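#onboarding

Welcome to the new folks! Below is a worked example of what a typical request in this channel looks like: someone posts a single protein sequence, and someone else replies with the predicted structure as tokens. Don't worry about understanding the tokens yet, we'll cover that in week two.

Example request:
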Amino acid sequence: MPLILKNIFKHISLTPQEELLFLSKTETKKHKAKTILLSSGEISKSTYFVNSGILRSFNINDNIIEHVLHFACEGWWIGDMYSYISQKPGNLFIEVLEDAEIVEITKENQQQLYQEIPKLERFFRILAENSLVSHQERLMDNLSLSAEERFEKFCKKYPTLIQKVSQKNIASYIGVTPEFFSKMKSKLLREKENSNIRSLLIS
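Example response:
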């Protein structure tokens, strides 16, 4: 069964005929690393589901500094929700970080699916609600948690990305400079080693 259908079945069920109809409205593409799927200032016409590989969404401020908002790996969705829903120019870039296979659904096809398979509207509503909750949680984390605590949450949310994503991208995601992140990571590693040593001495 395609991974995207497994993702849908977490929330709703489809008949075999509905599965075929849904898949007929999608397009699966392979992209090389560094491919830009969406640029700031464009209107988002599609949303993306990751079969394999890694994507990120980010924006660039007036000082030409990148701010990573989200990562998406196998089994995750990604897109510019503001632009996709409003059909106005967005301010996000979506980039392929690691060679990826992506399922793309255009807004036009999604609207057609709502007409032909109404329960899909519930599925995409759940996705939108989860995205809103995640965005608010991220905002509150940035206001109330230390950099170390934000990094710990990143490790729990994206455990497979620690060795695959550059330190620069992780630093941008948690809101610190690459230099600060490098020092913080070294400090955390030393603390972990000292903790392990203490455990050995006590035992």
